[in-house]
Structure prediction request, 516 residues.
Amino acid sequence: MRKNHSLTSIGMEDDYQSASLWEIFSRQIGSFIGIFIVFAVGAAAAALASWNFADPSLNNYAAETRPTNILGFWGASFADISMQFFGLGSVAALLPPFFWGLLLIAQKNIPRLKRRLGFLLLGLFTLSAACALLPPPQSWPMPIGLGGVVGDKLVGLFNFLPGAVSPFFISLAALFVLFPLAMIFAAYAGGVILRPHGRRQAEVSRYGQENNEEETAPFYPGNDNNIRAAGQDSFAEDNEKPEKHERWHSFFGFILHHYLRLVSFCRLHFGSRDANGNSRVKQHFSTAGGDRRREPYIDTAGAAEHSALVRQQKISEEEAKTRQDRFFTALDTPAKSVESRQKPFILPSINYLAVPKKLPHNEAKIHKVLQKNAQNLSNVLEDFGVKGDIAQAYPGPVVTLYELEPAPGVKSSRIISLSDDIARSMSASSARIAVMNGRNALGIELPNQRREKVYLREILESKDYRDSKAGLALALGQSIGGDTVIADLARMPHLLVAGTTGSGKSVAINTMILSL
Prediction:
């Protein structure tokens, strides 16, 4: 029996020694991991400190620009993504990992890691929202706020605050409420505050070893004193669980209490008011009247609004049912033919359209102006080395077409490429040059100094529109020569309407629709 007992003791001692060696090895690995985390946090802080919005990154392609970030391209990419999403609140994500690295270097555990990761995200979002409430300076390069996209979205959720709140009070709330709250969350996530002390979190491993969060004490199997100590610790842990929950509840109760006080303060001073300018919240809690009996306050206006909303909802539901019934009834009812209608459809009178205003035209003056413009255009073409004659000019309501007969050997492509230069030399907004079909000439269109209106009534009263045999006659307008242009929409596959901004494309399309 003694021999067996000694063999069992030797086996337990070997297991304990192997467990101790594994613990020492794991703590050394934890120290190296802590050093790596501290260096990684330092590199991230350096990348954020040297952030430049103009640096090339994954979000900003600049092939000829060298990054000014300390960590180069990848550091600029990390800093750009962090600032785009969280803005200056990215600092909250660096503090907890830094303290985790210090704990691992000191060969201490990181208790409740999942909970601390949750508080890390909570501190990150809170600090981003606090930065988003602050007005960005003029040197801020991004179109979003100081809290990034996440901060702007979180601030947008608080729609209960009225729009008349002063930016000064918003900045005070960010500085004295959200910033300390974010620091508390980050400190708890990093293990700086509210760390469990002593032997409350002691656990017994499968080797019988007692692992503490702050320190590790040797544990020998088969020792009655250690077994009693473990039992006492377990009993103490069970007795102290309510204390932990009370501390946890008091911590969140403190935060919730001050948050509700802030909300009630904002509603009391910035909430809705009645016709006399008094706050509706103050009316509910008025102390006037001394000790006499006070009747409960009933908001009749709110009740009336609620009943009106209910009635409106019922009416809307009935109307929806009626519309559905009419829709299905119309589907079941066969459509009546045009001949069976009692009253034939009558087109609206043309008198609804404005009467065209005919401006007085002096033919001699117009001819003189055309000759002068043609001579100027010929001089401009000679300045650019283009030889040719202006054979004819066709004035229109909006543009004037000049017919150019180029000299032999002059390429049409060379003249067309000079359209911008010709427009600049003729002091025109634009110039269009194209080959005239079937003729050895090029057309140069220049806008008139005074544009004339083309009236829809003038086109509808024209002989071409009245005598048109098109199935769907579409009034396009007038040509350069002032002739009415009518097209058949049933046979026309495509229609291109082009022009600069403000030239009247939308008005032309609406007029075409009316002409149908």
